Amino acid sequence: MATTLEQNPLYPINPATFKWFFVFKNDPIVSGVPTPYWNVKFGCVLFVTPIFSQLGAASTEVALTKTIPNNAGVGIFNLQRFIESYTSPQQLSFLDGTHVVRFHGEPRTEDFYFPIHVIDKYSMNDNCATYLEPRGFLEGAVASNLPAQTISGTVQSGGKFMAFNGYWKNELWYRKVGKNFGYDYETYYAPKSPSSYGILSDAPLVQYANDRDYGVISMFNQIFTNLSPVAYVSITGHFSNGSTQSFSVNNIDANGGVTTPNPGAPHCQESILFFGIFPGNLRQSNSTFQGWLNSGNLTHYTWYIATQGLKLSSRIHTIKLNCDPQGRKYERIRIGWLNTMGGWDYYTFKMKSTESIKTKTNDWTQLEGSWNKDSWNPQGWKGGKKSYTVNAKKKYKVNTDFVNEEEAAWFEYMINSPEHYIIHPHEDWREPATDKYNSFEKYVTAVRLLSSSYKKKTIANDNVMQYSFEFEESRTLNTQPI
């Protein structure tokens, strides 16, 4: 009377909002031959934990759902809504006593915390991924007047998986093998070979940034499918005279990474790493890069990920430094957003940006003069309609320069993102003793995207492509009451 697993995801690593369908079958129990059961139902227990070795323990059970057999005699379970609630974006740098994440050389502590966007080198994650295992079973009663119970010998695992904080894009093509379907995220996104994209992002291979812009990449490190851990990130500077220089940043505990992964299947905290790859991060953590910038000859730099035993484990990415040959002095606004893979993407809007303030007032009418004395006296500051409080919000309208088709397509993901921030540029760290505790407010401003529509432009249809977006600060400025 063994239960069989008829359908589950084709690949072991999927975004949290993937269509997590599991189908279980047990014809003898459902048909009642040879042993009849009453009130037969399929059940499914879901276990979730970031520690692979604990899957299946009672403490990791998070959900139990049941269904009656359908017309084909099977039980179909969609566990998406349960699974997607167990991952979340990485907002702050990781904190523990071993993996030292730093900002301007200052280590993260319980009191001194800073956003993930401004880290010096590496950071592990808190809750960007989790392991899961569903287990199907059948229950029934041996007599019509008895309660239903789990039928012995019918428990069947639905497989072990890792879910990460991404979402399924409708344009992706499923691969279907038998009844199972999915998309091979590991092969395309994980650092496995020179043809792998290497990072958790859909950003173009060539990006642009100012010399003080912050930003991180995220990547699969060692995962339970035996993916080799990241060894280092290699960075090569390219200069106006045609020369190049390189350095590497090792993935070790002292750099905020992982020197020695957990034996066996790694914990999910070490399975996704963040690395500060943009100029603001590199200039505060690496004297070589700072020298490149100070020389004034750096035009762009390339970088790639290397895993243990394989020198080149990702495609080569390029970051070009923005210049302003026409002498425009527009204020540049850098927007960061949560991308489709649960990491962070960034774009610096370098054309004309405008800032406005929208206010909302609460009004009241005040009596003129003094009424609580032995005589009435005129008082010029009293009387008439006044604002009791003023609530204000800032709005930003940003514009791109001319963009290419790859960047134009990338903006679609920015429009779809649920989280957006203004990432403020690198500043000198002159007073760490008093100023360091303001790091989050100083470098990150939460905003809401007001633009609700997006038109995908192409060279063939539009000739030149520019975009304009509007953002609003998430928090309201509440002024003092009178």
Please tag this protein with its features.
482 residues, mainly beta, 8-stranded antiparallel beta sheet, 9 helices, globular
What secondary-structure arrangement, pairings included, does this model have?
Blueprint (H helix, E strand, L loop, with lengths): L3 E4 L5 E3 L5 E5 L1 H5 L6 E12 L11 E7 L6 E5 L1 H4 L18 E2 L2 E2 L14 E2 L5 E13 L7 E2 L5 E2 L3 E4 L10 E3 L2 E3 L2 H5 L16 E4 L6 E5 L9 E10 L4 E7 L21 E5 L2 H7 L1 H9 L2 E10 L9 E5 L11 E6 L5 E6 L4 E13 L17 E16 L5 H12 L3 E4 L8 H4 L3 H5 E6 L9 H4 L5 E6 L3 E2 L4
Parallel strand pairs: 2-13, 16-22
Antiparallel strand pairs: 1-3, 3-6, 4-5, 4-10, 7-8, 9-20, 10-11, 10-12, 10-13, 14-15, 17-20, 18-19, 18-21, 21-22, 23-24, 23-27, 25-26, 26-29, 26-30, 27-28, 28-29
Helix pairs in contact: 4-5
How would you portray this structure in words?
- With 482 residues, this protein is mainly beta.
- It folds into 2 domains: 4-88 and 129-183, Immunoglobulin-like; 189-355 and 392-478, no CATH class.
- The protein is 11% helix and 36% strand.
- The protein contains 9 helices and 30 strands.
- α4 packs across α5.
- The longest helix has 12 residues, at 405-416.
- The chain is globular, with a radius of gyration of 28 Å.
Averaging pLDDT over every residue, what do you get? 87
Q: Which of globular, elongated, flat, extended, rod-shaped describes the shape?
A: globular
Low-pLDDT runs of 5+ residues are none
Count up the domains: 2
Helix share bin? 10-25%
β-strand amount: 35-45%
Number of strands: 30
Which secondary-structure class do the elements indicate? mainly beta
Question: Termini, distance in Å?
Answer: 76 Å
Largest sheet: 8 strands, antiparallel
**Count of helical segments?**
9
Structural Rg: 28 Å
